[in-house]
Amino acid sequence: MASVVDPDMFQVPLAALCNSTREALSTHLNPLKVLPTDEGLLRDWRGLAQLAGFSGQMVALMGSKPDPTAQVLSQWRQGSVGLLRSILGQLDRWDIVNDTQNMMDHDAVLFLKRKEETGASAPELDADVDKEILTIADVYRLEQGMEPQRYDAFLLFADEDQDFAMQIMDRMETEYGLKLCLRDRDLVGGLTFEHEAIMRLIARRCNRLIVIASPNFLKSEANKFFVTFATALGIDQRLRKVVPVMYQRCQLPPELTYYFWLDYSRAGKLYDFWTKLHNSIHSPSNMQSSRTNLPAIKANGEESCSLKPQPVLEHNTVISSNWKDEDPADSCSLGSENSSTLSQNVSSQCIF
C-alpha cells in the first residue's frame, strides 16, 4: 500500500490531480511542438495520447476540442500519476516534470490521506464518481455518508464574461447565502462526459439556471443548448427554471425572447439588480403551487403543447418584444399564450 508520506505515484490514479495541476499540464502540452523526440514521438499532447494507447480516430477527436490535454487526462482511465511522469520523460518534456512535480506530489498526498481516512478503495470511489459524484462538494459529502450536494442555481456564462460571473457568485453566496454551481470551480476533474454531467446537474440538482446573456455567450452552441434544455424542463415540469440576466445587449435566439430579463445596465438606487436577482433565484416557482391541478403530460407529447400554465401572479404578462425587464416575481415567467409554441420549439431541439 502506498504511503501518505512517500507515495508510490504508480498507485495514484489521475483522478487525484486537481484542476490547477491539470491546467498547468494543459498550458505546457497544448501548444504543438514541431521537433519530435529521437524515437519520433511528438512532444506535445499528441505524444501523450499516443503512448496512453488512444486510437488515431480518438486522437483526432480530442484535437477538435479547445483543451485536448484535458481530454486525454479525463479519458485515460488506466493512467496513473507515476505513468504520466514516465511518459513525459519519454517525450523529453522534463521541463513539465520539474514544473509540476510539487503540485503532483501535493495532490497525491491529499488523495491518499482522504482515501486512508474514509477507507474507500479506489475502484469503489471511481464507480461512485461515474454515477453520482459530479462536483467537488459531492466527494466530501460522500465521505461523510451524505447525499450529493444540491444547489440553488447553476451559473452559465461565456468565458469572456467571467469577471461579471464572479461578481454574481460572490454577491449571491456571500451576502445572500445561496449556493451556486460553476463548471470550472465545482465540477470534479476527470469527468468523461462533461456535457452530460452539466445536464444532470441542471435537471436534478440545481433549482435554477442563471443565464448571463451577451454577444460572447451566444457564440457558444453548448451554452445555447443548455438554455434550450433547461427551458424544455421548465415547460414540462411547470416551474420556473431559467433566470435570465442581460449583461450586454445582444440579439436573442427565438426561444429566449419569451422571458422577462433582469437588466444589469439599469443597476442603481432606483433599480436594485442584486435583490431582484436573489428573489428570482430564491423565490418558489410560479407554477409549483398549481402543478397538482394540471393533467399529466403524455410520453408522446400530445398534451404537452396544449397545456397552458395557470397564472398565479396578477401580472404574469405575455412578452411581445425582444426582451423585457420586470420585477423579480415576473422574471423568468412565460406568457401563457406563448408557452405551447415554445414547448414545440424546444422539444424538437432537446431530443438526445
From TrEMBL:
<dbReference type="GO" id="GO:0035325">
    <property type="term" value="F:Toll-like receptor binding"/>
</dbReference>
<dbReference type="InterPro" id="IPR017281">
    <property type="entry name" value="Myelin_different_resp_MyD88"/>
</dbReference>
<dbReference type="GO" id="GO:0005886">
    <property type="term" value="C:plasma membrane"/>
</dbReference>
<dbReference type="GO" id="GO:0045087">
    <property type="term" value="P:innate immune response"/>
</dbReference>
<dbReference type="InterPro" id="IPR000488">
    <property type="entry name" value="Death_dom"/>
</dbReference>
<dbReference type="GO" id="GO:0050830">
    <property type="term" value="P:defense response to Gram-positive bacterium"/>
</dbReference>
<dbReference type="Pfam" id="PF13676">
    <property type="entry name" value="TIR_2"/>
</dbReference>
<feature type="region of interest" description="Disordered">
    <location>
        <begin position="329"/>
        <end position="352"/>
    </location>
</feature>
<dbReference type="GO" id="GO:0005737">
    <property type="term" value="C:cytoplasm"/>
</dbReference>
<protein>
    <recommendedName>
        <fullName>TIR domain-containing protein</fullName>
    </recommendedName>
</protein>
<feature type="domain" description="TIR">
    <location>
        <begin position="149"/>
        <end position="281"/>
    </location>
</feature>
<dbReference type="GO" id="GO:0070976">
    <property type="term" value="F:TIR domain binding"/>
</dbReference>
<keyword id="KW-0963">Cytoplasm</keyword>
<feature type="compositionally biased region" description="Polar residues">
    <location>
        <begin position="333"/>
        <end position="352"/>
    </location>
</feature>
<dbReference type="GO" id="GO:0002755">
    <property type="term" value="P:MyD88-dependent toll-like receptor signaling pathway"/>
</dbReference>
<dbReference type="GO" id="GO:0043123">
    <property type="term" value="P:positive regulation of canonical NF-kappaB signal transduction"/>
</dbReference>
<dbReference type="GO" id="GO:0008063">
    <property type="term" value="P:Toll signaling pathway"/>
</dbReference>
<dbReference type="GO" id="GO:0034142">
    <property type="term" value="P:toll-like receptor 4 signaling pathway"/>
</dbReference>
<keyword id="KW-0395">Inflammatory response</keyword>
<dbReference type="Pfam" id="PF00531">
    <property type="entry name" value="Death"/>
</dbReference>
<dbReference type="InterPro" id="IPR035897">
    <property type="entry name" value="Toll_tir_struct_dom_sf"/>
</dbReference>
<dbReference type="InterPro" id="IPR000157">
    <property type="entry name" value="TIR_dom"/>
</dbReference>
<dbReference type="InterPro" id="IPR011029">
    <property type="entry name" value="DEATH-like_dom_sf"/>
</dbReference>
